[in-house]
Amino acid sequence: MKKLIIINSLLALFLTCNLIAQKSNASKQGQILSENDFDFLREITKDVVDSSRINPGQTIPGGFGPNNTGGILIRPGGRDCYPSFWIRDYAMSLECGFVSIEEQRHMLLLTASTQCDQPWITRGGSMVPYGAIADHIRIDDGLPVYFPGTIGYEDQGNKTFGMVPPYDDQFFFIHMAYYYIKTTSDFEILNQKINDRTLIDRMETAFMVPPSREDNNIVYTTDDFRGVDFGFRDVIEITGDLCLTSILKYRAANELSEIFAITGNKTMAGKYTLMANKIKAAIPLLFLDERGMLRASTGKCKQADVWSTSLAVYLKILEGESLDKACRFLVKAYKKGYLACNGNIRHLLTIDDFNATTSWEVSLAKKNTYQNGAYWGTATGWVCYAIAKADFDLAQKLAKEYIEDLRENDFRKGDGNGAPYECFHPSGHRQNPVYMTTVTCPLIVFMSMNIKPE
Hints:
This protein has 454 residues and is mainly alpha-helical. The chain has a single domain, classed as Alpha/alpha barrel (Glycosyltransferase). It is built from 13 helices and 16 strands. The chain has helices at residues 2-29, 35-52, 87-93, 101-113, 168-184, 199-207, 243-262, 266-287, 306-314, 320-335, 380-388, 392-408, 437-449; strands spanning 53-54, 73-74, 85-86, 120-121, 127-128, 136-137, 144-145, 193-194, 197-198, 220-221, 240-241, 340-341, 344-345, 375-376, 423-424, 430-431. Strands 3-6-7 form a three-stranded antiparallel sheet. Strands 14-15-16 form a three-stranded antiparallel sheet, with no helix packed on it. Strands 1-2 form a two-stranded antiparallel ribbon. Strand 15 (423-424) and strand 16 (430-431) form a beta hairpin. Helix 2 (35-52) runs antiparallel to helix 13 (437-449) and helix 10 (320-335) packs across helix 11. Mean pLDDT is 94; it is low at 1-6 and 19-28.
């Protein structure tokens, strides 16, 4: 009992220090959004999350369901958007503040229960390795689908979407557990057994699934046995050392280190801190180009990646001259119109398109659609955060454009309005209205940038 009290006290101290640090940063810079715009973003985000909930027994558009998992699920968006529980979209949205403790616990334990406990080969010839986390989980029977491209359990897995499941979900699973513990101080859940294995064991097993270099712990993949690096570009064929996945692994290593430190296991805490430090040191050495941008990989599609670069700034991986150079270049790209449209962000700058017919080197999507050149709100907060370090006024301008687009096309107006969309292009392409990470991810960043000075 005494040990639990000490652990809870340490966690409370940690959260207090985090909040003080956020307030200090916000006080120095001012607010990224006006109070009115910030309140609007919070309100629309809450309504999008509400629209994304699937209650027990509920059937969703398209005849999917009912939800027989025993608790509320949160899918990637409302209306006809993605009819299953997607791990990454949910995990990326957690910190928005609109997911209850009960909901968190249910989705965490459901995800843990569907972790692969026995390697197997799909009918399409792909392999599900031991410890793999599902890409998404069916709501009617709770079966895991480890690969993109299908809702069906039997149909999953073929070379088109990787010979192994996407690498990012393992690290998002760790983030789900970390955030639940951080929110609740429920350290006892770490030793709770799910299918005869404790949660902490499942977290460590998941961490080791994506193949990584022995010397620096960077995640990599090959042409012959490829895995998707990040589900928000699963129709893009990216190979070699992988930047964004390694960024997610860096965060997961720090989260595991923090959990072990608070629970008194200094040896394991040190192990994961060392891994995180190696990844942090390796990322700029492997991926940084001469302009300050991080490339997506070292193999196919080794193009300068806006999402990796801005996320690395947000998670404090880039430092010193590398940080300054990256932020200054993003400012330049935004001013010249290479980066954003209506406050939404491309994966690649328009000047970095592979050729006239495709943005990424290898893509299943046509140019300027979906993940191959459309504009996404998911990354807007990370980019604003990075630009703010070099030009805060310009970051405010980008954030304002993002809010104005949401206001203009707000799904709550009805009559064909659907913002937040998953992505769009000014040529007329729009995909998936009422999409969650388009608002949750920026809100999470803006909350840390928009704390009023005291």
